Amino acid sequence: MVRLRRTVAKLRNLLANKHAEEDLAREVASHLTLLADDFERRGMSAEEARLAALRALGGVEQAKQAHRDERSLLWIEQAMQDLRYGLRTLSKSPGFTSTAVLTLAVGIGACTAIFSLVNAVLIRSLPYGDSSRLVYLYTPIPQFKLSPEVFGPTYADFYDLKRESHSFQDLTAFDQSIFSLASPGAAERISAARVDGDFFRTFQSSPELGREISPDDNQLGHEKVAVISHALWQAIFGSAADVLHRSLLLDGRSYEIIGVMPQGFEYPPEPEGASPGVVADALGTHSFMVEGYVRCSHDD
Amino acid sequence: MSIQILQGTLDLMILRTLATMGPQHAYGIATRLQQVSDDALNLNQGTIYPALVRIEQRGWTRGSWGKTEHGREAKYYAITRAGLKALDEETERWRQMSGVVEKLLAEEQ
Fold this sequence. Notes:
Distance between the termini of chain B: 23 Å
Mean pLDDT of chain B: 87
Order of helices and strands of chain B: HEHHEEH
Oligomer: heterodimer
Number of strands of chain A: 9
Strand order of the largest sheet of chain A: 2-3-8-5-7-6
Strand order of the largest sheet of chain B: 1-3-2
Structural class of chain B: alpha+beta
Distance between the termini of chain A: 64 Å
Strand content of chain A: 15-25%
Number of helices of chain B: 4
Structural class of chain A: alpha+beta
Number of strands of chain B: 3
Largest sheet of chain B: 3 strands, antiparallel
Mean pLDDT of chain A: 78
Shape of chain A: elongated
Largest sheet of chain A: 6 strands, mixed, barrel
């Protein structure tokens, strides 16, 4: 309690230092006067008494400094002095100061920007089962002098791979795109992916509500179905329990909602803060460009 | 022979002085300490300032400006209720401490 009281008093001193300093000067001056008065009464001359008073006090500045050390949080006070000195020095050379500030600002800004990107792309692990064994599959086409990552396998290649290759535990084809989602009174752009029936098995994720998209849903003539993200479920349906079998209007077409993914699952991966919009709907038999997201299975 | 003030005892001596004599200014306190010690206490009067601010910040004394009998202005320190309580505790602690030291020294002889 006593210690707290002192700390508070010391902090207050930082703010009212000028007052404390004046008070101290006044007190020391009065002390010297009283001492000198006494010496004069004992028969000294005014000048002798003044010097004797100074001697008796034993160093006015030392006494004041000891008082200061005791009364305030010295390190804060010194830091503030250093800070003020630094600011004064900087303000004397505005050219140097602005160059330094700009350099720092650009440096810090660039670091932050790059880190955000690296964090999103490389560090934050994908929110799917064993994400370290997930790979993208590409089909380089040498005639086009483009990077091999531009082309995914064609449908035919994809089905060949799926049937013939033993290097992969599961293979899934999908197509990411932006849809316009119509809700009463508003339309929203959300990102989504058309997927095949092996998507959820490949990603080792399943819905918290309802069922996943199965190979059956990919058959021609079947109703269009969608699995929505947790965030979308909250945003559009207010987490309603009866969301299943309701429908969603995407690009003017109606999709029946068959599942809701758990929180944390997001696909396509969104930069943080993007609108909730993870929807997987059944990949039809229309000719989409196919990318292969595959899962190694070397059974290691 | 002049003696140095033992660390931490100055607060106790100042509190005792204020409790005995009533409100005093720094000069009054320092003079009193010198008188009581028969001038054996090697005290630069300025050395009591840190102790004064320390005990004031602890709430054991309250300082206010007033006039001396000769019409000079001076800052008077008055002991508070918390100060009296602290004085009791510090006195008790000092008695125990000095008792232990005294006893030890007596046995050594």
